[in-house]
Amino acid sequence: MLNYLLFTYVKLGVDAMAELGGKALHILRLLYEKGAVTSIYTVGLKQSELAKQLGITRQALNIHLRKLRSEGYIRTGRGFIDITEKGLQALGLSANPVFIFVKVVPQMRSEAYKKIAKLPTLRVFRVAGDIDLIILATREKLDEILKEISQIKGIEDTRSYVAIEAVK
């Protein structure tokens, strides 16, 4: 099974490399090597829709977005707005995630997974090994998530880890 997974992973990489070509792949590799790990929240909302929700004109919204962008709180592009780490900090949210490792009784996994999928998490991964799930969440939601998990039948164990900083 492990060999199959490794083959599949390598094959996906080979297919992507073949699709990109030499120079594009070189550029992508250089960008990756020069990059840094960051936390960004992407909003796939049109500016006209956002302006409508805020009850302001699109032109007024553009003035506000331009200021937020120039101060590094957001990045914008065609069809998206990214809230940067600086923006998250301004909202009182931590950019460094929390990892919650969860062990579930095998007979109750299906039901537990459904309930955990409804929690305010960033991502939930099913994994193979000594644990069943890795939950990625924000520090602000940790207590709420752990409280909810403690009420789910079939949870054997949880372990929480708070990221201090990204090393790479």
Which helices and strands appear, and what pairs or packs with what?
Elements: H1 2-20, H2 22-34, E1 41-43, H3 47-54, H4 58-70, E2 74-77, E3 80-83, H5 85-90, E4 98-104, H6 109-117, E5 123-126, E6 133-137, H7 142-150, E7 155-162
Antiparallel strand pairs: 1-3, 2-3, 4-6, 4-7, 5-6
Helix pairs in contact: 3-4
Task: Explain the overall architecture.
With 168 residues, the chain is α+β, with helices and mostly antiparallel strands. Among the domains are: 41-90, Winged helix-like DNA-binding domain superfamily/Winged helix DNA-binding domain (Arc Repressor Mutant, subunit A, Orthogonal Bundle); 98-162, 2-Layer Sandwich (Alpha-Beta Plaits), CATH 3.30.70. It is 46% helix and 21% strand. The chain has helices at residues 2-20, 22-34, 47-54, 58-70, 85-90, 109-117, 142-150; strands at 41-43, 74-77, 80-83, 98-104, 123-126, 133-137, 155-162. Strands 5-6-4-7 form a four-stranded antiparallel sheet, covered by helices on one side. Strands 1-3-2 form a three-stranded antiparallel sheet. The radius of gyration is 20 Å and the shape is globular. The model is unreliable at 1-12 (pLDDT under 50).
List keywords for this structure.
3-stranded antiparallel beta sheet, alpha+beta, single chain, Alpha-Beta Plaits
Question: What's the level 1 CATH class of the domain at 98-162?
Answer: Alpha Beta
Identify the CATH architecture of the domain at 98-162.
2-Layer Sandwich
- What is the count of DSSP helices, taking H or I runs of 4+ residues? 7
Quantity of strands, as a count: 7
Large-scale geometry = globular
Low-confidence segments, given as residue ranges, are 1-12
Classification by helices and strands: alpha+beta
State which percent range the strand residues make up.
15-25%
Mean pLDDT, as a whole number?
Answer: 84
Largest sheet data: 4 strands, antiparallel
Question: How far from one another are the termini?
Answer: 30 Å
> Which topology of the domain at 98-162 does CATH recognise?
Alpha-Beta Plaits
Question: CATH superfamily membership of the domain at 98-162, which one?
Answer: Lrp/AsnC effector binding domain/regulation of amino acid metabolism (RAM) domain
